Amino acid sequence: MRRLFIIGCGDVALRLVSLVRGRYRIYALARSTNRFATLRAHGITPVRGDLDRPDTLDAIAGLAHDVVHFAPPPPHGIHDTRTAHLVAALARGGSLPQRLVYISTSGVYGDCAGALIAETQPVRPHTDRARRRADAERRLRVWGARTGVRVAILRVPGIYAADRLPLARLRSATPALRPEDDTFINHVHADDLARMVLAALHRSQPNRSYNAADDAPQRMGDYFDLVADRFGLARPVRISRADAAARLPDNLLSFMSESRRLVNRRVKAELRLRLLYPTVEHGLRAAVAAQERAGGTRSGESPP
């Protein structure tokens, strides 16, 4: 049986696990033994290690045929030292993994003024957060080209699901940008992202990047309006960009400063994936239906 090693075993990773259970022997990196019971309950063998402490990573060398790297970079700087430590640890094994899928961010493209963006678009990150992701992509590409490990990079926009919606923002009456100032954003449903990861493990081309997005980029304010309408909440007040700069926190403004529309043709043509939720509207319908089946329990919260 093939062995799969997951780094960063959060929500989307567990959705992936539900798709591959029985086909893989599954391992996951855990910094603390506190996570061991949860991982084992999902049929995952925990491996103790910390990407910030390379001396703890000896056990991962030669462990698996396939690796999926969900872990975020460190919170500061422009380099992803965690990915550097991971690559060095994998290289110490008697055998290298055959495939590695890295979960990056569409933020590596920077602001594109609302243009349609395919994977051939040059990477121009505008924030340190995105620069760290671009650094991880570069390290993995170089390593894959040198060693023959089949590296695939999924550039992921905003992830949503029934339990990952911006309901708290809507209830707090946080304003959105007026249409003439608004930016285009992209989304992917968490279930579709898990399926993209699985497809990339089997069908990706070597050293290839993929825009892991749905079919329907939309303006940020329109997204909030749609969620508000579906969940019976008030639509956000629209304000100018100048007013937003004075009223909103920096981390929220950073989401409003980049505009692009991702083209997902490679996901469909090369990974041969048919989306379960081609638009946010499809995903919200499913979320509302799930809430009604659960007797009105509120869905969870997520940033835009």
Describe the protein's architecture and organization.
This protein has eleven helices and 15 strands. It has a domain at 2-160 and 187-217 and 258-279: 3-Layer(aba) Sandwich (Rossmann fold). Helix content is 36%, strand content 19%. Helix 1 packs across helix 6 (190-203) and helix 3 packs parallel to helix 4 (128-147). By secondary structure, the protein is of the alpha/beta class. The mean pLDDT is 95.
Notable characteristics:
Rossmann fold; 19% strand; alpha/beta; globular; 11 helices; two-stranded parallel sheet; 304 residues; 36% helix; 7-stranded parallel β-sheet; single chain
**Overall 3D shape:** globular
Q: Enumerate how many helices there are, as a single number.
A: 11
| Helix share bin | 25-40%
Structural class from helices and strands? alpha/beta
The H/E string reads: EHEHEEHEEHEEHEEEHEEHEHHEHH
Q: How many strands? A: 15
Assigned CATH superfamily of the domain at 2-160 and 187-217 and 258-279: NAD(P)-binding Rossmann-like Domain
Mean pLDDT: 95
Amino-to-carboxy terminus distance: 39 Å
* Second-tier CATH architecture of the domain at 2-160 and 187-217 and 258-279: 3-Layer(aba) Sandwich
The strand order across the widest sheet is 3-2-1-4-5-7-12
